[in-house]
Amino acid sequence: MIRTVGSAFFYASNRYRLRRSLALFALSALFAVMMSSAIAAQTGAAQEYQVKAVFLFNFTQFVGWPPTAENAQTPMVIGILGDDPFGSYLDDTVRGEKVGDRPLIVRRYRRLEDVDDCQILFISRSEAVHFEQIASSLKDRSILTVSDADQSGKRGGIVRFVTEKDRVKLRISVSSAKVAGLTISSKLLRVAEIDDGAGQ
Amino acid sequence: MTFKDVPIRRKLIASMLLTCLVVVVLMQCAFFMYSLFVLHKNIVQRLSTLGEITATNLTASLAFENQRDAQEVLDALQAEHRIVAAAVYDGDGRIFVRYPQTVLANQFPAVPDTNGYRFDDSYLEGFEPIAERDRQLGSLYLKFDIGIAEREWLSGSLRISLAVVAVVLLVAYFLSRMLQRQISQPLLALAGTVKDISEHQDFSIRAEKHGKDEIGQLTDGFNVMLAVIQEREDSLRTANEALRAEIEERNRAQHQLARAQKMEAVGQLTGGLAHDFNNILGVVIGNLDMAGEQLPPDSAARGPCNEALEAALSAAELVKRLLAFSRRQPLRPKPTNLAEVIANVQPLLARTLGEQIRITTASSPNAWLAMADPGQIESAILNLAINARDAMPTGGDLRIEQRNVTIDDAYALAVDDVKIGDYVVLSVTDTGSGMPSDVVARAFDPFFTTKAPGAGSGLGLSMVFGTMRQLGGTARIYSEVGSGTTVMLYLPRARGEECDLIGTVPSAPIPGGSECILMVEDNAQILAIGAGILRSLGYHVVVAESGDDAMRQVENGQHFDALFSDIVMAGRLNGLALARELRKRKPGLPILLTSGFTSPATAHSDLTELGAELITKPYRKAELAERLRAVLDGPPKAVT
Question: Is-contact B434 B478, C-beta < 8 A?
């Protein structure tokens, strides 16, 4: 299952089935186009976080966590620290999804101390002022820290969303990921900019 | 030239090459089909692999919506130039990026189809899922130009294929050249043998067998056929040779028969002529003899009378030679010294031939005596000399020689008409014009002459030859045009006691007697002359005009001491019959017979049987006196 901008909510409940009848497919496609254009017209900010939600989900595909942090029995957790900018997008995106055999859930943390056993942590802009403290406290915990706050990479974050010309781009600090014990797929690195705080 | 006329070797090579070509082409076709199948399979495989790799590389680009990166990945496909189009569809089935960018989006399928590849015309196209950890993110569309691939494959394969065909044909050609010998060699050998045989007509040639196959059987059959042909040809040739020999033998016999018949005819002619002529000459000579005796020694008539006598004697000699030639008159051969004969005849030759011709003679000192009649030999020499003179109108040399020759088996075989034995050869050689071989071949034929009409009788050489045959010898001519001619007379060597008689030439006076002679002669004139001669010699003569008359007188008791009778007489008893009759009555009766000619049948045997002597007409007084006296004085004859 794939989540992409515009038709994410429609396809969320709709498995990408190859054997679906042509009529239904055509109808769905038409509906999707109509919906996507309607949402695009709604708001640019909402569209941006829709993309970021999908990206957060997609990280589960290209990042490897150390075995100690990965337990087959426990679900995989995408956490949000601070204010939630996603609304229902992220919940819609991960609903019913699994990584391997592990179900995927979203948790929201108000404070740093609340952050428990999670694999991906989106640090909201509301927490930007404490970013160094958050990053340093989390740096040994095998958590992929993601943020769209300015300079988050230099301040200890691993992945940063950068929005250029209405397009969301990735900046990844390989050294921070190494410290956190995470392996990032070369495929992911190829589509991202390397943003090594130590080097810059 | 059709294929049928092409030599067998080329046919074999061509067949093998054609077979190879067909097989190779068929194999190549199969190979091409298989190769095309493999090519397609490989292309699908390759495209699939390429698609998988590319799809893998595209996952992050698609997941994080990095179009630039996706474009880079797709642009890398240009390394495979046969991929003419590619596109990435996102999870919503929209085109994310496309390759090459020059191709408009509407030329791609609007939405991704099911995964997998399918052939479409000259293209192979299909979709590859873009997935990460079992999660399909989108689809990759690839379009592959099979045409390019097939063209490349075809040009490469065709080159190899043609090379293979060429190599195979080349190898097949050389192999077939070598292998075709196995088949063609025996056939060619057989054909060569046939050609040899037909060219040389030699059926003893045999074809060589190379094996036991059909060609070997053919060779065997051919050889058997040849053996049969050879056998037949041999027998045919033998039969042919025998036939030819028989024809030749027959021709020769016919030739000899014709010659003998000719001689017989001539002989009968001359014999008949001579008989009458001798009677006439007898009268002439007898009367001239009588006249000569009665003429006074000083009479003027004595000269003409003697001349007439000489002429008559010459005529008698001529007739005698005619008879000798026709074998009507038996020759009286005796051991003769040819040197003497040559010496005797030489003065006559000198006179006859004239001063322009030089005569030389040569005799080997220990020459044998020849059984010959000297008079006949003289006559023959004279004959040959005259021929020589005619061949040398402006003069020349004439050489007369005698030598001993022994004819052995080889020579007798080479010249068919000579018996083995010793011969004395008398040769007469001139330096005249010579004769061509066709003239030589006919020179001994009677009445054959090269002289002008009237100049020669054509009997000269013929008579010489006849004489030689009669004497038991032969004559030969060797002649070369422009150089001269040699005539050789082969005379048999005289034997034993015959030689003792040499030199006993009687020259006694004419003997007479007083006995009573019964003279029988149907010619009145001859009877008168003969009786006159006998009476003049002192004999008492009783005459009878025929055999019957003589017989009657004897039965009437007429006394007589000897019989002197003509042989050929009209009436019941001829001379021989009379002599036989009287011999029965008086076994010791001396008998002297006379004839103008004597048939060959009665010539020797009858006289020998009767123990009678023969005097040939015309006879002279002296001869008659001598022969009669010899008969009267001889040993008493007994009836045998």
Answer: no
Residues 6+ apart with CB under 8 A from A49: A85, A86, A87, A89
Q: Is the complex ipTM more than 0.90? A: no
The total of other beta-carbon atoms located within 10 Å of residue B410's CB is 8
Tokens at residue B549, please?
Answer: 């008359």
Helix B621-633 / helix B524-536 crossing angle, nearest 10 deg: 70
Across the interface, of A18, A58, A99, the residue whose CB is closest to B63 is A58
Whole-angstrom Cα distance, residue A186 to residue B60? 9
Say yes or no to pLDDT of B413 above 60.
no
Residue B440's Cα: distance from chain center in Å?
A: 24
Q: Is B135 on the interface with A (CB under 8 A)?
A: yes
The region that residue B354 occupies, defined by phi over 0 for left and psi between -120 and 50 for alpha, beta otherwise, is left
Task: Determine the pLDDT at residue A41.
Answer: 43
User: B533, B563 in Cβ contact below 8 A?
Assistant: no
Q: How far apart are CA B519 and CA B594, in angstroms?
A: 11
CB contact under 8 A, B92 and A7: yes
Q: Which of B379, B398, B381 is nearest to B389 (CA)?
A: B398
Integer Cα distance of B322 and B329 in angstroms: 9
CB contact under 8 A, B64 and A61: no
**With contact defined as beta carbons under 8 Å apart, do A124 and A81 qualify?**
yes
Nearest alpha-carbon partner for B116 in B40, B45, B37, B38? B45
Question: H/E/C letters for each residue in A46-59?
Answer: HHHHHHHHHHHHHH
Kindly compute the dihedral angle of the four CA atoms of residues A155, A158, A161, A164, in this order, to the nearest 10 degrees. Answer: 70
Size of interface A-B (CB pairs under 8 A): 65
Contacts of the segment B40-48: beta carbons below 8 A, 24+ positions apart = B40/B119, B40/B124, B40/B146, B43/B124, B43/B144, B43/B146, B43/B149, B44/B117, B44/B124, B47/B83, B47/B117, B47/B124, B47/B126, B47/B142, B47/B144, B48/B117, B48/B128
Angle (CA) B237-B239-B243 rounded to 5° is 115
Contact B516, B542 (CB under 8 A): yes
Is the previous residue joined to A67 through a cis bond, with omega within 30 degrees of 0? no
Q: How far apart, in whole angstroms, are the C-alpha atoms of residue B298 and residue B311? A: 21
DSSP state of A121: E
Contact A190 B60 (CB under 8 A): yes
Q: Is the pLDDT of residue A25 over 60?
A: no
| Rounded distance between C-alpha atoms, residue B461 and residue B335, angstroms | 23
The one-letter amino acid at A147: S
pLDDT at residue B563, rounded to an integer: 92
Phi-psi label, residue A193: left if phi above 0, alpha if psi -120 to 50, beta otherwise: beta
Edge-to-edge order in the sheet of strand B123-132: B95-99, B83-89, B135-145, B123-132, B116-120
Helix (H, G, I), strand (E, B) or coil at B493: strand
Residue A51 with chain B: CB contacts under 8 Å: 65
Instruction: Indicate if the pLDDT at residue B163 is higher than 80.
Output: yes
The one-letter amino acid code at B47 reads L
Taking an 8 Å cut-off on Cβ atoms, the answer to whether B111 and A187 are in contact is no
- Whether B327 has a pLDDT exceeding 60, the answer reads no
Question: What pLDDT digit, counting tens, does each position of A156-185 carry?
Answer: 888 999 888 888 889 998 888 888 889 998
Residue B504 has pLDDT above 50, yes or no: no
List the helix and strand counts (H, then E) for chain B. 16, 17
Task: Tell whether the torsion through CA atoms of B270, B276, B282 and B284 is positive or negative.
Answer: negative
Contact B465, B489 (CB under 8 A): no
Whether A62 and B137 lie within 8 Å, measured CB to CB:
no
Asked whether the CA dihedral B22, B25, B28, B34 is positive or negative, the reply is negative
Answer whether residue B20 shows pLDDT above 80.
Answer: yes
Please state which of the ranges A75-89, B458-472, B553-567 shows the lowest mean pLDDT: B458-472
